Amino acid sequence: MNSLKFKAIVWRRSIIAILVLALGLFWLSRLGTWLVVADPLEKAQTIVVFGGHIPFRAMEAAQIYKGGWAPEVWLTQGRVNAEQQALDQLGIPTVPEHEYSRQVLLRLGVPAAVIRILDGRNRNTADEVRTVQRELEKISGRRVFLITSKYHTRRVKVLWRMLSNNRSQAIVRYTDADPFDASRWWRTAGDSMAVFREVFGILNAWAGFPVSSER
Fold this sequence. Notes:
Layout: H1 3-29, H2 31-35, E1 46-49, H3 56-66, E2 73-78, H4 82-89, H5 97-107, E3 115-122, H6 125-138, E4 143-147, H7 153-164, E5 169-173, H8 189-206
Parallel strand pairs: 1-2, 1-4, 2-3, 4-5
């Protein structure tokens, strides 16, 4: 092979590599935006606040309730983690996440009588989806609001489709006050960790949950 042919091959392969890298970086930069979805508002039987990211999830639930879109707000419970157990053993009281969310709802004008804490401890989002589906079936509900964080919305929709068997419709929402920056997610460690965790969670769900996860 003469030097001109060799240089031409190297040049073509370099161009291809640069294009592939550019496309990869572009796709990666859009990953945060891809994770964020929001369904249009519709009347539903209830509003569910998933655990975590206090107070933002409860804030959106309060706004939807006050808008007259659903008559109740449900709160899921997380599991008791090792830190809470250690504090309990030391006689130091702890406040569960769902209680903080309840306080947020009350502060924002949601009546205590319409707030319900669902039975059962949930290790992760998949458990929460199963819990909500069971409770929804008890009231013959066909539509439910699922309130979570911006970065978590895509995974919630994936899990609902997989685990509910289309027995009911989920309206997935988040609050605009959520600080997650979808278009610049790589700029902070917190947003970066959230994106990689969500992508892993979605891939894990698509693969049939080979890895057991805990929130």
